[in-house]
Every structure is written in C-alpha cells, then in structure tokens.
Amino acid sequence: MLIDPKAAKVRGVAKLVKKEARRETGLFLLEGPQGFREALERPKLVLEAFATEEALARHADLFTKAKAARIEVQLVSDAVLAALSDTNTPQGVVAVCHQFDVSLEDVIATKPKMVALLSQIRDPGNAGTVLRAADAAGADAVIFTSGSVDIYNTKVVRSTTGSMFHLPFVVDVDINETVAALKAAGIQVLAADATGDSLPVLAQDGSLKEPTAWLFGNEAWGFEPEILALADRVVAVPIYGAAESLNLATAASVCLYSSAFAQNSVAR
C-alpha cells in the first residue's frame, strides 16, 4: 500500500491537476468510480489507477474489470488519495488517463448532424455540463475554441460524469477557422444569444432539422460582436417567467434538445 502523500510517485501524479503538466505529459486525472467505469469501456486510455481499501470493496466489479484489462491499480491510504484529488470529499479512486481529443477535420469527416461549439467558456462546471447535455441530446461532437477552459481540468472531467468518453471532442481551435470549416461542410451555425430570433420560431419553420452547430458564448459577456457576426443566425431561448436570464448550461441544453427533437422527428 502506498501510504505517504509526500512520496515522489504521489507528487508526480498530483502535478496533473495543473494544465502545464497535462500539456507536457498528454495525461490527465480522472476521479470517481463513475468516470472510471466509463473509462474502462476504453481501457487503452487508462494508464494506471489508485484506490483506497474501501473503494476496492465497494466497487469490486470495477477493479475486477480493470485487472482483466491489465490496468495496474495501486492500493493507497486515504491521505494519499486526498493528495491526488482536488475535492473535499474524494470518492476513493483516481485514474491516470491518456488525453484523447480529436481534430476538427476528424469530426467534419463524420458528417455530423449536431455539434456544440463552445467559444471562450471559462467555467469548468458549465463546460462539463454542456458536454454532458450534448451527449444526452445525441450530439455528434463538442468543440472547444481557444480561450475556453481545458477539458482535462479535473473539475470539467468530473462534471461530465463520464460523458466525455461517449462522443468526440475537439480542443483549442480558432473560432473563425472553425466556423468557416463547419459552414463549408454544409453545417449551419446558430449562435445562442438573447438578442436573436425566438427558438420556437426556428422549431416551427423547420430550420432545426438541418445539420447544426450551436455556438455558445462566454458566461459573463456572451459574444464579442465580431464572433456573433460569424453565425448564420442568432437564436434566443425565450423566458416566459420573471427570471432575468438562464444559466449557460441550461440554455445550451434547451438548444441542443430542440435540435434533437427536430432531427429525430424525421428519418436521419
């Protein structure tokens, strides 16, 4: 058992909470049994794992599956697990995984019907929740532009609850080049913004049946004018009650599901 939280091995792995270390190594940390369960569906992505005795007993099936996949699971003390985690209440297991983002060209080659395009999304929880919503809505990919939060940030990884293993994602791309490439591939770009046409109007006129990239802007300031101008159309989620605004992740979920409803009502 690994018991010393100051051991060189522990300190080396713990560095992966920092973006610089993740960039240098091409690795990232995955916390919690649910994320680990999803990662084991693609075992070549998992380099190694660390777990407490309690976690090994509680999730025996997971570690049996890891052993079958020849993934080394190191037994650690609670103190070591805490040193590897950035949460106040660690969930007993931390895995080291290889990064697995894909290129924009790879995504476009699949002829996607629905894509979530995140422009300068900075909040880890929002980013992870949007990716999770995109997964649930049946989106074909999620794209993170440069200036957005690192998807391999432990908080983003945790908030996806394993959905990051379900659909391809692209990171650190130029917004102008990305929109141009999507349009060239016949994908309309719809920007979600309060200044736009009401979402139900698009649902009624059939626009949402078309291959679509939903463009979502920064949580605090939305879109810069030149970015908003890139979209084929600006679309607003109407607010029928007294709320001042919608959380980014909530609005994104509504938009993505509106496209999902439209696209799945006809033969695809």
- The total count of strands amounts to 10
> What would you report as the Rg, rounded to the nearest angstrom?
20 Å
Report the total helices: 13
Strand content: 15-25%
First-residue to last-residue Cα separation: 53 Å
CATH topology of the largest domain: Alpha/beta knot
CATH class of the largest domain: Alpha Beta
* Form type: elongated
Major sheet: 6 strands, parallel
Domains (count): 2
Kindly state the percentage of residues in helix: 25-40%
User: Oligomeric state of the chains?
Assistant: single chain
Mean pLDDT: 95
Provide the CATH superfamily of the largest domain.
Answer: SPOUT methyltransferase, trefoil knot domain
Low-confidence stretches: none
Which key terms come to mind for this protein?
alpha/beta, 4-stranded mixed β-sheet, 268 residues, single chain, 60s Ribosomal Protein L30, Chain: A, 13 helices, Alpha/beta knot, 2 domains, elongated
Description:
The chain has about 270 residues and is α/β, with parallel strands linked by helices. It has two domains: about 90 residues, Ribosomal protein L30/S12 (60s Ribosomal Protein L30, Chain: A), CATH 3.30.1330.30; about 160 residues, 3-Layer(aba) Sandwich (Alpha/beta knot). The chain contains 13 helices and ten strands. Helix 8 packs parallel to helix 13. It is elongated and about 60 Å long. It starts with 7 loop residues before the first helix and ends in a 5-residue tail after the last helix.
